[in-house]
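Handout, section 3.2

Students often ask what a structure token actually looks like in practice. Rather than define it abstractly, here is a full record for ABC transporter ATP-binding protein/permease. The first block is the sequence as you would receive it.
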Amino acid sequence: MTVEVAPLPAAETGNRPPKAAQKARKQQEALARKEILAPVRRTLALASLIMAVASVCAVVPFVLIVEACRELLADQFDADRVWRLVSAAMIVLLVRGLLQALALTWSHLLDAGYQLTVRRALAAKLTRVPLGWFGERNSSEVKKYLQDDVEALHYLVAHARLEFVGALVVPLVTLGYLFSVDWRLTVVLLIPLVVYAIALSRMMDQGSRDRLAIYTRWEHRVQQSTVEFVDGIQVVRAFGQAGKAHTEYQEAVDAQARAFAQWKTPMIRLQAVSDIVITPVFVMLVIVLAGLGAVGADWVAPLDVLPFLLVGLGLGGSLLGLGYSGQALRAAGAAALRLHELQQTPELAAGTAAESGIAEQAGVVRFESVTFGYRDDHQVLRGIDLELAPGTITALVGPSGSGKSTLAKLLPRFYDVTGGRITIGDRDIRDYSTEELYRTVGFVFQDVRLIRGSIRDNLSMARADATDAALERAARAAQIHDRIMSLPRGYDSEIGTDAIFSGGEAQRLSIARALLADSPVLVLDEATAFADPESEAAVQDALAALVAGRTVLVIAHRLHTITGVDRILVLENGTLVEQGNHHSLRDAGGTYQRLWEINEAALDTVALIESEETR
């Protein structure tokens, strides 16, 4: 089992993006943060104002204590004034605690509501993006958007603004007061702050960001390999590849550990230095040494050193949190950018639920000069013209990469055409509302998706108001009713708890769901391709019931399964090159004949192997 991953980040290959690209990236992140946080900006501004007042109140008690000490050390002191100063300091300290608690509580409540709103908005957004968007991403990526990235915004909303205000206001008020006492000692006190700023900038330089990008990529690779390993455990064990699959997962984990060490190791010394220079003990040492020198040189009176010892010691405490929150801020910025890009994902234009009475033309499907490309510079389909008549089965065949799966996915609007149009009953499918389109077009693909819930829940997705009798009729027609009734709670049995369905059984359940939907147009991706041998005949019978009287387009991978269809369309390199029935195309000497000969040779080989095994 191989794990497909995106290319390594530019830093890992030694090709760092140009400065213009880095600058553009920063601008995009800033814009994303601004737009993502727009709904809470005004409320955060009010919370920040409260935090600013609280930050001032954090300094004022120390200033009052200094004045009380000055009074106590005076030749004649006023005891009442001392008590007033101390009482005022205690009151201001209490107010500071209340204001800080208010600001933090408010920001966290705001964050809780904001995350709920964002998740709802993203969930609603995902209902409007093309279904093909999900085919390009695995479940871990979708989960990352809705859970991890939204959770990463917590720091931006609940902490970042308040911590920044505190880290700005406390030093400014402190330095302003200390400058009024003595500017020379204040300049000396700035030295630890400058050293801290230099160390912090070194820890957040481009090299560190490159190493962080590498670590993030390996972290994502571990997530992918975990999902791949768990999802494919049955296959890898069946073919004796569990060791190989585990090895690939282990290699990804080891690489992530190495990337973490490469990112963190150069930062350890810098982080140690930055932490030490703004600790109260180190700051006190600087103040004492500078104060002794200043007193010895008659620059200041001994009493003037006291404010620096009481007020200046807390100067670095407010800055320390910024250093440790740098990673959370970068992660939140990257998450905001990803969520902003998701919000900009083009949506399927929803038609209006206009009158849907198309009478006898309801099942006529036409592709008119259809072109499509996943990118503007590469067309996958070119000039497709075809008509699917009601009550007929049309098979779509072609070499791998010819565009047959892409063409079939255009009909249920997994993607929108880039040129031409697709109509049902002379009505462009882009004019259908989403609900109306999926009442008109049903689809059954190889990769069956069942939700975690009861069998009844899975079937009722097709028609929420379906009666028990309707559910049973659909299940019987799909050859799955007897299997359901053998379960402990019948149709109320929980999938994954009461029953584990085989591939063929899951496929028949999805066919029952399609029968219940009763859509006149149907797209099938050869449904027996992954069915177990015991189930293949049952699946074929279920499909026979499903396609009866409908307009059916089937993607055929095994040509011997579609020899009896009404018409066969042959795609090659995104172009419709042949069409007709099996007999005419088999003898035409074209692409279909070549594919048929390959199919027959493969069947002969399988038959030969089976005969050898039975000897």
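Discussion prompt for tutorial groups: DSSP finds 23 helices and ten strands in the chain. How would you have guessed this from the sequence alone?
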